[in-house]
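In the previous lecture we treated proteins in isolation. Real proteins rarely work alone, and many bind small molecules. This record shows how such a complex is specified: first the sequence, then the SMILES for S-adenosylmethionine.
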Amino acid sequence: MNTSSPEAAMQRTFDSVAGSYDQNGVEYFRPIAARLVELAELDSGEYVLDIGCGRGAALFAAAGAVGPTGQVVGIDVSASMVAETAAELRRRNAAGVVVAVMDGAAPGFGPGYFDAVIGSNSVHMIQGLESAYGRYRTLLAPGGRLAVSAPASVVEPEPRVFGLRSIAAAAARFSVSARVYPQEEAFGGPEKATTDLLHAGFTEVAVHVEDVVLRADSPDQLVRWTWTHGMRMMWDTMPPEHHEAVAREIAAEAAEFVTESGVVEVPSPVRYFVAR
Ligand SMILES: C[S@@+](CC[C@H](N)C(=O)[O-])C[C@H]1O[C@@H](n2cnc3c(N)ncnc32)[C@H](O)[C@@H]1O
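The predicted 3D structure, ligand included, written as tokens:
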């Protein structure tokens, strides 16, 4: 991989956050992954491929759904994510679940091996996704499903990322990758994604947009969370003299979402596609 390419930058970012990714108590990735697994209608005993498995939000949910007679394979380009998740698998003594370092653009498995291919908040980052859909279809057995999710873009009445204007503004000013901060519709939008999926040989495509609640114990915890996933790329490219002001803006806006019980709850729309 060209070390100055956007792919290499993304891989470095996820390598650098792997230790803290989805571990600081903020709820966002796991409820999305749980919903995706529900939409994929996994059955006991099925074989599942989880693309861009990260720390296992969808992987563990899928393992629960297919049970001990099923099999779940998680792949990720980030070797650090895979190492962390492999350690977690050993801690949990999880049977029937394996993880490997592999590019989700071209997973190396035999035709018809899986009943479902899933990817939560990951597949939209893959370059050349249109041609990858065809490979995913080939991996599926008859009756197989592809289920993917990503944050839905919000541009009206003003741009929001993760439900917040302040993050969209900072991302637009300092971001290096629109694929990490989806100011553009993930998967090219519902019409293009549906056309691409049908073109790849899927016969049925369902599109859903649903809010997930981004939940943090405090505005400051939410700001710290932004350092632990793809948004880390923004902080790393932002000149350090802007860090404090941007963090203050995000915390101030998050404070507008503090509920009566004292936690932050920001509704944030998520796009799901399920193709059969
Ligand atoms: C936002 S995380 C999502 C992780 C997990 N699925 C979740 O829901 O928490 C995105 C993950 O996709 C991985 N990723 C990005 N591009 C990839 C590619 N081309 N192939 C495989 N994994 C990729 C990243 O390394 C990262 O672990």
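Summary for your notes: Residues 79-92 form the longest helix (14 residues). The chain has one domain: 6-275.
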